[in-house]
Design a protein that fits this description.
Helices cover 31% and strands 24% of the residues. It has helices at residues 5-19, 92-95, 97-105, 164-177, 197-205, 216-224, 249-273, and strands at 26-30, 42-48, 66-72, 75-81, 109-118, 128-135, 181-188, 210-212, 228-238. 46% of the residues are buried. The chain binds hypoxanthine.
């Protein structure tokens, strides 16, 4: 289904009516087990997805399904606690719907976080990775269908989806905090099944450093509508076939819990410097 400009505006208006004169500048999408940052927002105004016209519910475990508006590190933020995934049965357009709505509300920056499998055998589970670029070429684009010129052009450039200035800012911030930060390419896979070892070897050959089931669609849409993007990944597990053990959701959630302090410190310090 193609959403219309009117629908995006209706969603934005419904949210705006709850915000008073608050105008968010930084949209944040928090991944598996990382949603706790939303609970740390000051003077929060929470809006459940189910109360926003045209929004879909988020059904993935560890995803609350609400937007929290308020202040974090002195920045006016809109935090998505819980994102939609293609594997939940949503189209890519549905998955990235909220990003456009947040753009209409005033956000010009998007910070995306996720948990992902580590494809590199010389890195370790628990490491954090700055996303430098992404590969999502085996599935359709969230921009498929009629283009809405209010958001951007039909054939948008994707050379710098992850904004170089924000990458440098994250690097510098991690250095200051003495948090080791890997850098690499996020390789998008549909899920919900974890990848096969053969798929991971293919991803590695193609230049992927991390594999995950989220983020890439939202970032394409953010780039299209002119937002600056910062992407941070928690490498929650070694990708399939690297270790002689099955992958499990529990492993991902446990890793997110273990990385909580480090991850939160990095995101907060980046926010402060924006
Ligand atoms: N593969 C895909 N998505 C993931 C993984 C993985 O290994 N870990 C966390 N999200």
């Amino acid at each position: 289904m193609d959403y219309t400009m009117e629908q995006y505006r209706e969603s934005a208006q419904a949210i705006r009516s709850r915000l008073g004169d608050f105008v968010p500048k930084v949209a944040m999408v928090l991944g598996s087990g990382l949603g706790f940052l939303g609970d740390e927002v000051e003077d929060p105004i929470a809006v459940d997805y189910k109360d926003i016209p045209h929004f879909k519910a988020s059904t993935a475990p560890g995803h609350k399904g609400r937007l929290v508006f308020g202040t974090l590190e002195g920045r006016k933020v809109a935090v998505m606690q819980g994102r939609m995934h293609h594997y939940e049965g949503y189209s890519y357009e549905e998955v990235s719907y909220a990003v456009r709505v947040l753009r209409l509300l005033g956000c010009d920056t998007l910070i995306v976080t996720n948990a992902a499998g580590c494809v590199r055998t010389d890195w370790q589970a628990g490491d954090l990775m700055l996303i430098t670029d992404q590969i999502k070429m085996f599935s359709e684009s969230p921009l498929r269908g009629e283009n809405l010129p209010e958001f951007g052009v039909r054939f948008p450039d994707a050379s710098h989806l992850y904004t170089p200035r924000l990458r440098e800012l994250a690097r510098e911030t991690a250095r200051e905090l003495s948090i080791p930060l890997r850098e690499g390419v996020y390789f998008y896979c549909y899920g919900p099944q974890y990848e096969t070892p053969a798929e991971i070897r293919a991803a590695r050959l193609l230049g992927g450093d991390a594999v995950g089931m989220s983020t890439a669609p939202e970032v394409i849409v953010a780039g299209h509508c002119g937002m600056e993007v910062l992407g941070l990944t928690l490498l929650s597990n070694m990708a399939a076939g690297i270790l002689d053990q099955p992958l499990s959701e529990q492993e991902v959630l446990d890793a997110a819990e273990a990385a909580r302090e480090k991850f939160s410190a990095l995101v907060r310090a980046c926010l402060r410097k924006l």
